[in-house]
Amino acid sequence: xxxxxxxTASVHxxxxxxxxxxxxxxxxxxxxxxxxxxxxxxxxxxxGDAANVARSRLAAAMPTADIREGDTVTELLAAIxxxxxxxxxxxxxxxxxxxxxxxxxxxxxxxRVDRPVVVVxxxxx
Length: 125
What we know:
globular; Rossmann fold; alpha/beta; 35% helix; 125 residues; 4 helices
C-alpha cells in the first residue's frame, strides 16, 4: 500500500499528477490525497477546480481533497506531517503559461521533505 499526496493549486498540475499516477496506483490498496493551498492572489476557484480534476481523473482511487489557506509551503509541510504520505507529488512550477524551471514551492519541498518527492512535468500549455 502506498499513500500519495498531490500538492497542487492548478488544474494543469493536477492533470500532470493524474497522468503520472494512472497505471502506477492500485485503487484497491493505494490512497491519493490532494492538498491545495489557496494563495491570496489566486482565483478563488483554482484550488477547488484542481481537486475536481483529481476526483474525475483518479475516480477509482477515490482521492480525498484538502483545501487550505495560508502560506503554501507552511501548509503543505503541515499536510505532509499530518497525513504522513509515502510519496509527495508536486508540479515543477505553478503550471501557468510562461512558467519554467522548478519553482520555489517545489524547491522548498525537495529541501525539507524526508520522503520521495516526485516533480511532475508541466503539461504543454
